Amino acid sequence: MTDPQITVLAGGVGAARMLSGIVQVVDPASITAVVNVGDDLELHGLRISPDLDTITYTLAGEINPETGWGLKGESWQAMESLKRYGGISWFGLGDRDLGTHLYRTQRIAEGATLSKVTAEITAAWGLGLRLLPATDDRLRTMITLAGDDADAGLEVSFQEYFVHRQHGVPVAAVRFDGAEQARPGPDVLDALADATQVVIAPSNPVVSIDPVLAVPGIRALLEARREDTIAVSPIVAGAALKGPADRLLRELGHEDTVVGIARLYAPLASTLVIDEADTALAGLVEAEGIRAIVAPTIMSTPQRSAALARIVLADLLDPS
Amino acid sequence: MTDPQITVLAGGVGAARMLSGIVQVVDPASITAVVNVGDDLELHGLRISPDLDTITYTLAGEINPETGWGLKGESWQAMESLKRYGGISWFGLGDRDLGTHLYRTQRIAEGATLSKVTAEITAAWGLGLRLLPATDDRLRTMITLAGDDADAGLEVSFQEYFVHRQHGVPVAAVRFDGAEQARPGPDVLDALADATQVVIAPSNPVVSIDPVLAVPGIRALLEARREDTIAVSPIVAGAALKGPADRLLRELGHEDTVVGIARLYAPLASTLVIDEADTALAGLVEAEGIRAIVAPTIMSTPQRSAALARIVLADLLDPS
Questions:
Q1: Rounded to two decimals, what is the model's pTM?
Q2: DSSP strand E in chain A: where?
Q3: Nearest neighbour of A78 by CB, restricted to B96, B106, B124
Q4: A165 versus B119: which is more confidently predicted?
Q5: Touching check for A256 and chain B: CB below 8 Å?
Q6: B103 in contact with chain A, both atoms CB, cutoff 8 A
Q7: A77 shares contact with chain B (CB less than 8 Å)
Q8: Pairing status of strand A46-48 against strand A41-43
Q9: Could you give the ipTM of this predicted complex?
Q10: Could you tell me the domains of chain B?
């Protein structure tokens, strides 16, 4: 029998914490994360991949603990200089972090794929797991704004919505530009097909997991792996721990509870881990056709992340 | 009578010092520098214009006095980060300096010309003079290496030669890629045609001034302005004050003395300022058909730069 393989569908912060738990309980070499690239952007000529970097920096122990993004011990000289010129400064790029974007951009200009550069970057940080961009092709999450002001109906990039407008505006629709032409990155389909266990991390289902599923071939394959797939709810007691997942779910017509999550993930996963705060909803979750596991899901410390990982991987760790 | 206008053909360090003298003796609003862009490069996805930046930082009083390029008070966090990945690190980009390149790259991606961005950058630093890129089109100084090793015959970019190989390799030829298709930047021809006085700064004639002259229209116009053009020799006592001008002149078949400079500039300028160290060569200079002025040309202090500027602009400052 081959060693167990774990494949995790991943966005940014929530997935990074989930993965930092999983690497504590299984050999990192057995872990593959298939990572959202819908949040990626080109800015100042640079190729920026926020979710890939958040996971990398988190697992390297270098994430800025206050922001949840970027590197700790950062300086901001380049941004200060940029502000002198009136440049675009709403997307914060620390000096250390810039080194990552300079490297990625140069390598892609030289002809390397995002997958290849990502492998180089994770190797440089000494990470033992494998990060695979969902696609090496261009796929961009686009947000149509709602509301009653002049911007209603305007379609903006994800980062324009998320960072520049601080996800403080209502949303009418989400679209994944380029998804129809995008091809799964190398090894992505194999990683999903061959996994002993597939995990859907507690990332935003609408703007972190959906853009991964939008790459042709991935959703169908995941549906086929339903019995071996477990999801962790990013919604706890009707709210997102971080970011606008709850609002987005409501605005896009979903229920902003674990029941809404169950409805979204039931075709893809046979089990949903929900927080103890939602114990009362376990029955309603199971009524959606997905097994509910109640557990502490708030990964506020490395120990809690590891404990959640043990629950998520229980079948694999103790197959009896 | 309109105010006198001064137009300076400029490379990097030598021109920056010349201009820092000129702004002390005439109204900066009367000064235009037409600046070499043959040294420009794209690296890490960024648009880098070393000569424009050296002049800007020097006139802003922010140049790194030790290197002669980059900003003072720099930090190097992005480069350190880049080195972690094994990225290209031979071209030093300080964190503050990066802000300039980020801004330029973003603005050009938005459709701005290099001329427009340069005006924005100089305005942000509060400079009173006008810096005009010789062309907004792509023009790149390419160096064919000589010697007897495996690289002989190889053509490399200027920065690959100048910085990466630290101009320590012999040169067989210089070519200005794109020059034939390049158009003079906006206002460049007018600035040369309308100038009361044209100055050729003490920059490298082969790799700083020649790429400016290689833009179609500029050399012919300068020949027509010969009587109002004065050059300052970048060669003092047979050596370049900075950089490889002396070696390059020799390797490309020119004489590495003020006489060699006189021969190159006689068609373009009616006067050549040579250093006191070359007093004995004044007669040979004039034999090339160009008037020689002997003066202290080493601009080691702002005072010396101003004194040289007064000599260069003597006809204009005291037209009696």
A1: 0.94
A2: 6-10, 31-35, 41-43, 46-48, 130-133, 140-145, 155-157, 171-177, 197-200, 229-232, 235-236, 239-240, 271-275, 291-295
A3: B96
A4: B119
A5: no
A6: yes
A7: yes
A8: antiparallel
A9: 0.92
A10: 6-137+180-317 (3.40.50.10680), 140-179 (no CATH)
